[in-house]
Design a protein that fits this description.
alpha/beta, Carbamate kinase, 41% helix
Length: 234
């Protein structure tokens, strides 16, 4: 049986720059990189909403829309990003219709090397990371979160030069960190609160990696990589 990898692809990696242009080079590297592992692996890519979702949410906040409506705007952005990625990968590799449930993801995985989706349904205080964490448990797979920083840091590395990478952390300690952050729709953190709860509850080994895809390739090839491992052992 092929190893199942669930990738949470942050929207901040799908788009780049202040003009939110498509991050073509990274997406092409991702497409080519994982295609080399199709003989031994199957992939699920969960698209994040990123800056597009945050723009939609900010616009609706000015209209004083409620929490559910803000979350739904973010969910729709993840699905639009997923539809784009499905076209980008093409029918020879990826699914040709958008899954709306975990069962549909699983069914598609039986006939595709890679299945792409966005957030699957509305759930309080959750994002695409939470969807990916649920899928990792449902499919008995490995959870890898790809974001715009190389892993979990002691503080925001984009703001503080003395921030240090945390290479290993337990599920419990990571959950305790996320519990200190107040949830809001469209938030931007390496892994959201619901995902932290799920990986702790389900004992899902989780990796946080940045935009340098050589680290993903090294991880898949069981080589040394730069990033953060979340499991029970320090």
């Amino acid at each position: 049986m092929k190893e199942r990898i669930i990738l949470s692809l942050g929207g901040s990696l799908i788009f780049s720059g202040q003009d939110y242009s498509i991050n073509y080079n990274l997406l092409e590297q991702l497409k080519q990189g994982i295609s080399k592992k199709y003989k031994t692996h199957k992939f699920v890519i969960v698209a994040g909403g990123g800056p597009i979702a945050r723009k939609y949410i900010q616009g609706l906040e000015k209209q004083r829309k409620n929490k559910r409506e803000l979350s739904l705007a973010g969910i729709r952005a993840t699905r639009m990003n997923a539809l784009f990625l499905m076209q980008f990968f093409g029918k020879k590799q990826a699914n040709d219709f958008l899954p709306m449930s975990m069962k549909e993801v699983k069914d598609n995985l039986s006939k595709n090397d890679v299945v792409i989706c966005g957030s699957l349904r509305f759930e309080d205080d959750s994002t695409s990371d939470g969807t990916a964490a649920n899928l990792a448990n449902y499919l008995n797979g490995t959870f890898i979160n790809l974001t715009n920083v190389p892993g979990l840091y002691t503080k925001d590395p984009n703001k503080y030069k003395d921030a240090k990478l945390i290479p290993k952390i337990s599920w419990r300690d990571f959950k305790d960190i996320t519990k200190k952050i107040k949830f809001h729709a469209g938030q931007h953190f390496v892994l959201d609160q619901k995902a932290a709860e799920r990986i702790h509850k389900n004992k899902t080994k989780t990796y946080i990696l940045g935009s340098e895809l050589k680290n993903l390739n090294n991880l898949l090839n069981k080589k040394s990589f730069r990033g953060t491992v979340i499991n029970e052992e320090h």
